[in-house]
Amino acid sequence: MTRLLFITGTSTDVGKTIVTAALAAAAHAAGLNVAVCKPAQTGVAPGEPGDLAVITRLSGVTRTLELARYPEPLAPDTAARRSGYPLLTLSETVAGIESCADADLVLVEGAGGLLVRIGDFTLLDLAQKLGAPVLLVAAAGLGTLNHSELTTRALAAGGVECAGLVIGSWPGEPDLASECNRTDLPAVTGVDLIGSLPAGAGTWPAPDFAAAAPTWFDPAWTAAYLRP
């Protein structure tokens, strides 16, 4: 049976793509057939490598699916309107994800935060439609408690399971706020902190990244969410 896991962030630039790459690498190392979908990519011209190229380079997973691409670095629906390209629809996105149903695990990376409009829908709408859990990638520092609690409350209100919290970039020399947040994030959200990635992991050589990726997540969580 195919397992679905969606990945969103508390905002943009919190490390969603690198976390998705690490999840793909961990599942790939366990022998799973993994597919990764990025419904809408923005800020990348036709023919240029986007987030899926980063995921492939770091994880070794080559089965990827991008459904729409817009050149300006904006929310996908805004970028679509400005470019004159078609707006991505919920139905075609569901169909795209379902085309990967022969994989053991399908990872779906959103754009920006949970309620950013990917087309005529949000990642929350997509998760509701497919009944899939959502993993939340959070920043380490000041402000993350508010952003994380807002997102987990939105998931709960929408009836969507939050599969856990991951700190997308843990600094080599964490400040006081970051250290406190490791304790406070689970307390304020009611969601387990199941992993963190070292800052700069996305620049590592691919073999080093793939070898380390399984160690960045709680093993019990990995067994529960990354196995078919």
Brief digest:
With 228 residues, the chain is of the alpha/beta class. It has helices at 16-29, 51-59, 76-83, 90-98, 123-130, 144-157, 176-189, 206-212, 219-225; strands spanning 3-9, 34-42, 64-70, 105-113, 134-138, 162-170, 193-198. The chain has one domain (3-225): Rossmann fold, CATH 3.40.50.
Instruction: Kindly provide the name of the CATH class.
Output: Alpha Beta
Helix content: 25-40%
CATH architecture: 3-Layer(aba) Sandwich
Count every beta strand, where a strand is a DSSP E run of 2 or more residues: 7
The computed structural class is alpha/beta
The unreliable regions are none
Proportion of beta-strand residues: 15-25%
Euclidean distance between termini CA atoms: 6 Å
Number of domains: 1
Major sheet characteristics: 7 strands, parallel
Radius of gyration over C-alpha positions, nearest whole angstrom: 16 Å
CATH superfamily: P-loop containing nucleotide triphosphate hydrolases
DSSP helical segment count:
9
Structural shape: globular
Strand order in space, largest sheet: 3-2-4-1-5-6-7
CATH fold-level label: Rossmann fold
* SSE pattern, N- to C-terminal: EHEHEHHEHEHEHEHH
